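Task: encode each sequence below as structure tokens.

Item 1
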Amino acid sequence: MIDENKRLIKEVKKEKQKLSDERVEFNRQIRQEARKESYADMVKRIICENVEPLNIQMNHTLFNSETDLLCHLTDIHTGIEINNWKNTFNEEVLKQRIEKYTSDILDIYRLHQSQDCYLVIGEILSGLIHSNLRLQNNMDLMEQFKYVSELISIMLVKLANNFNHVYVYTTPGNHSRIVAKKEDALDGENMDILLPFYLKARLQNVENINICDNTIEPEIAMFSIRGKTIMSAHGHKDSPSNVVQNFTMMFSIKPDIVLLGHRHLNGLTTVYDTKVIESGCVSGSDQFAVSIRKTNKPEQTVSVIGKNGLICLYDIQLD
């Protein structure tokens, strides 16, 4: 009888533990669903209530050309304030740098008489991912998002006044997630993915701007320019040495050009005849970069693409 009682007690404890585990898992699912609904409500509030479409007259004339431009605007890091011996960055400096980048794109367009512009955007916010960034950020996430989205909207209108068509793609970065710990972040909880919704609402009256979706993999943009396959990711999950092999195996398609950001410097690498182009950082060197002796000027890239692929690559300095 004693042995039987012990067995029964053990069974009861096992069932009790099962119930406890089920309750923990159920509560976790409820928390995740609540966070998703809160995020969805935030999206609706930003996009549906606060964005008025631009109503402007476009003055571009269609033309034919043998080249297009591939522009990469990445690691913008809106919201961080930097003031060190190497770099000064704030909202006004960001505005100046995006205006300079836009001006340089238009200078290259006039030089090559390029027909269409493909703009890939990544990591628009400084975010909350590290404690030192939370201390350096002078705008909250919503203010960061609205400020940079409006700067990009103005940039796109200027481009649309010159090119036949402007195609816009987004590659979400690690800075723009809405929680600090990456272990706690849910798929889709990233402010970068709101940008296409904002731009579609803001620029819906501009016919030659196309805000494109990443239809195969949400974090990877895939498209074609003059018959050449372009793939782009932010770069925090890839490296220039293996990204071509990984993308080729993943999609059974060998890219002709791969764009990466994240490493905060311009670069060009050739891997199995594929050009891997890295673009730098709009915000420039922050205190963390200086502390680990990794300083670099704010810079981005512009590529001229023809029927045979990359014709030339422009090293754009933003200061």
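Item 2
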Amino acid sequence: MRTRCALEEITRKPSLLVIGLMSGTSADGMDAALVRIEGCGTDTRVVQLGFVSLPYTPEERDTILRLAGGESGGSRELALFSFWLGERSAKACLAVCEKAGIAPEQVDLVGSHGQTVFHIPQETEYLGETIRATLQVGEGSVIAEKLGCAVVSDFRVRDMAAGGQGAPLVPYAEYLLYRRERESVGLQNIGGIGNITVLPRGCLLEDVFAFDTGPGNMVMDQIVERMTGGKQHYDAGGCMAASGHVREDLLRYLCNDPYLYQAPPKTTGREMYGKEYVDALFCEAQRLYVASVDLLATATRFTAECIGYSVEHYCPVQPDCLIVGGGGSLNPTLMRDIRSRLRIPVYVNEDLGFDSEAKEAIAFAILANECIRGQANNVPGVTGARHPVVMGKISL
């Protein structure tokens, strides 16, 4: 085991090798991106060196979704799962190092989002107090022990302590990487949940605007799982949705969604668009005699409708273009629906030389780099926090 560097020694280096880790609401697997980062703040320069995604087995994914449902688990299982995920995170780090041809001992820092098992951004009465809370697990100390380097994890809680919603967090990294002087840029990520960031032309950090648009892949994925009896977890290539027809009556039902009409700042997750939501959707589809494939086509269109409505009604500055990333960008049917819904050019990250699949993992590498340098790394205008804070807990 190498001797761990003090934070002061790490921050004196002109560039750092950093691994960013992400396990999202879709619970598909653990993503790991290895990057070289120079500088911090608006001087940040990032080069991607490698990316891997270690898929979860059906049993592992079912466990994550069950825990994220909030009705089962308990302290014993959450403790076990957090350490298990720490081990899996470390394996992902070693795997991306091997793919990039980098010795693990060369890695300076890891930024780990962990797995959100419950997120309660709204005020909730508990034991006589009004509380908002969030819980991400995936023990950072396990990663630090396996890699022998500093690890920054559990980012969201500091923003929530300052009155924010703890999400979205990626806009800070997007500001550093995508900001343009002469063009307003919209960045739509489509993971389990959809979220949009708008960077007005020549903007400062306080000008950045972002929020969750609603379901991304989450509802579509659950429909596919039920249609295939669990044999498929997503609509590969959008082929199943492409074979169906959008039912306008069911689309009107979906668009009667209170979240869609809630003004930002706002954030959502599996708590809103999980099993109970999809149960109700199947019941409505049955009442309207909607075939399963048409249900999927309609749910796909609904994700596009959420994005289009959000751009038109909640963006104080209309973007000149929209750049789509995340797993949803790989669904041609969804991308077709988004392009037909919007009146601006719509691109995917690859059109600009970025990696859609690695984007969120890279964001947490950047957030970790900012944390160890003592730089505030939230966007209060996005999360609703009272002031800037340095997010992340450091394990050495």
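Check on item 2: The domain at 7-167+358-395 is CATH 3.30.420.40 (Nucleotidyltransferase; domain 5). The two ends are 13 Å apart (CA to CA).
End of task.
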